[in-house]
Structure formats: structure tokens, C-alpha cells
Amino acid sequence: MSFYVYIAIERKEAILDPSGKAAEHALGSLGFSGVSNARIGKLVRLKVEAATAEDARHIGEEAARKLLSNAIMEEFSVIEVTDQPHLSAGAHA
Amino acid sequence: MRTRIVQFPGSNCDHDAHHAVKHVLGEEDTEFVWHKSESIGDEVDLVILPGGFSYGDYLRTGAIARFSPVMKDVIRFANAGGTVLGICNGFQVLCESGLLPGVLMRNESLKFVCKEVYLQTENNATRFTSTVTKGRTLKIPIAHGEGNFMATDEVLADLESNGQVVFRYASKHGEIDRGSNPNGSLNNIAGIVNKEGNVFGMMPHPERACEIMLGSSDGLAIFQSLQASFQHVQGAHHFVSEAA
């Protein structure tokens, strides 16, 4: 079966994210008060052939560990495994 | 000094390194190795991973080049004590491959910085810096968007206490201050060597500063140090064979 595995990659909290800071300042000047700590990361979507969704998740995690993220500065999480090429939140938007 | 310069798709300082070693230094046996090659060849003294934008810097700088076929052999060579010099993108590849600790992040300013900087030589007891007087500042250009060296506190403490920090960004007079740091690197780090002393990475480009007509010849000292280290090894080897 084919699954779409969505992986979010973020910089670790302790690491400065200058692009997030720049976005945060721009939001502040647009009047978004009460919005802070903007962090800009990456979203990777993989199409994975696997027997079950759980297997697909494991393959996604392995890919993130080996290549897609760098454990020194980043953390990753598989945020969704689905048979649709979009996030479930996106389907309702 | 049998030198092999790895070419990744997107390398763009490969010919500069070749020119510096072959024509300025006068080392005849200097060849390119294509990244698809599974071997760097036999009887190699020095491998250079040059600057550039391997694989378009996609994902993270150096992250994809690190899995090029040739890198398996470069890693084997390094683990067997072979001498590896990574310049700019080459330094990023060395960090991604785990041959050097830490990571090079986006410059703090978010800007690509291309200018001449001064480097303070912190350790001249390496095969990469043996001809540089300790404390002498070198004028060498940088050209990168991702040179902001970062490591965990433990790794950084290790690097410092082992003398693995070879170069720091400094003022013209050698003061290591915030104003001389072009990218936000921890402790103004510009170049580090591994614990064993055979793998060295630096963000500045010594190959672009080997001739006065280019504005500085201070980078030549790094290639001359390497040349001297191999003459020494060859000399020692010769002596041993004669004695035997």
C-alpha cells in the first residue's frame, strides 16, 4: 500500500532561529500583538510503499534520522501518516 | 604530495584548489576525483573537499554530498589516518559526515557574506598549520551563507580543551572580538581539526589567497604546511628503509 508520511523538522528550542525572529518582528509591526517565538522549520512529505501505516511511519522516522534532519541542531516528528497527498487539517480548510 | 580534489555537482572552488596545489605549490600529482567514483585511488596523501554548493545546498549544506559514492572511500581514508582538508562547503560535508563534530548553520545575519577576514592561528602544531607562526593573523577571504559553527556545550568544551580550534575570526591585530565574527560562530570558530589531527575543516578559502595578485598570499601557508608534512613523512620513510 502507499502512504503519505509527513515529517516536521524544527530547530531545537535552544538554537537561535534568525528567520523565525525576522518573521516575528514583521508580525509585530503588522499589529499581531501577543504573537511571539516564531520558529520556521521544514515539512517533508514522503510517499512510502509499506504493508501498514505503522511500517510507513517507521520508514519515515528512519529517513529523518539518517538524512532529513541533523540531530545536532534539529528535532523531527512524523506528524501524520495518511493515504491522501495532503494533511488532514488541509482537507477541512 | 599526491593530492585528490573531490568534485561534487555544484563544487565551484575545485579548480582554485587545483591551481593552488599544482601550479602555485608545484605539486605535479594533483588530480580531480568525480563524486560518482567509488574510490579516491591508491597511494593518496591528501584529499581536498572543495568549496561550492554541492547538490544546490538542498536539505542542509553538505547533507546530500555526504552520501555521494566517493564519500565512503573518503571516510575510510580519513579513519585510516589519511589527511583530509575541507574548505567551506567541504567543511560542511565533513561535519555532516561525522568526520568533524558540530554543524554549520545559517549565518546569524541571514546574509551571504563575501569579504576578506583575519584569522588568528590558535594551534600551529597541526600538519595543516605547522608553517604558520602562532599568533600570526592571516588575511583570507570568506564567501558563505552557512558558516555559523555550532556544537553542544560538551563538544565545544572538548574542542577547546584539546586545542582542536585551529583558527578564529579576529581583528587585523588578532583580537578575537564580536565585531570580527562574520557569521555568529561559537567562540569565533573559523576552522577545527579532529582529535586525531588528520581531518581539518575551515570556512575561509585559503586556495583563493595563495598569490599576492589575488590580494593575499596568506592562505599558501596551509598548503605549504601540508607539503612540509609529507616531505617529512617521505623523508622519515626513506630513512627507515635505508636503515633496514
**Count of helical regions of chain B:** 5
Number of contiguous helices of chain A: 3
Proportion of residues in extended strands of chain B = 15-25%
Task: Say what oligomer this is.
Answer: heterodimer
Main sheet properties of chain A: 3 strands, antiparallel
Helical percentage of chain A:
25-40%
What would you call the shape of chain B? globular
Provide the structure class of chain A. alpha+beta
What gap, in angstroms, lies between the N and C termini of chain B?
24 Å
* C-alpha Rg of chain B (nearest Å): 17 Å
Q: List unreliable stretches of 5+ residues of chain B.
A: 235-244
Question: Could you say which overall geometry of chain A the principal axes of the C-alpha atoms support?
Answer: elongated
The overall strand count of chain B is: 11
Summarize the structure.
The complex is a heterodimer of chains A (93) and B (244). By secondary structure, chain A is an alpha+beta fold.
Task: Kindly describe this structure.
Chain A is an alpha+beta fold. Chain A is built from 3 helices and 3 strands. A 3-stranded antiparallel β-sheet of chain A has the order 2-1-3, covered by helices on one side. Chain A is elongated. Chain B is an alpha/beta fold and 244 residues long. Chain B has 5 helices and 11 strands, in the order E-H-E-E-H-E-H-E-E-E-E-H-E-E-E-H. The longest helix of chain B is centred in the C-terminal third of the chain and has 24 residues, at 220-243. Chain B is globular. Chains A and B meet through helix 1 of A and loops of B.
Short key terms for the protein model shown above:
heterodimer, A: 93 residues, alpha+beta, three-stranded antiparallel sheet, 3 helices, elongated, B: 244 residues, alpha/beta, nine-stranded mixed sheet, two-stranded antiparallel ribbon, 5 helices, 11 strands, globular, disordered C terminus
How are the SSEs placed, and which strands pair?
The complex is a heterodimer of chains A (93) and B (244).
Chain A: E1 2-11, H1 18-29, E2 42-49, H2 53-68, E3 74-82, H3 88-92
Antiparallel strand pairs in A: 1-2, 1-3
Chain B: E1 3-7, H1 14-24, E2 30-34, E3 46-49, H2 69-79, E4 83-87, H3 89-96, E5 103-105, E6 113-121, E7 137-144, E8 148-150, H4 153-161, E9 165-170, E10 189-193, E11 199-202, H5 220-243
Parallel strand pairs in B: 1-2, 1-3, 3-4, 4-11
Antiparallel strand pairs in B: 5-8, 6-7, 6-9, 9-10, 10-11
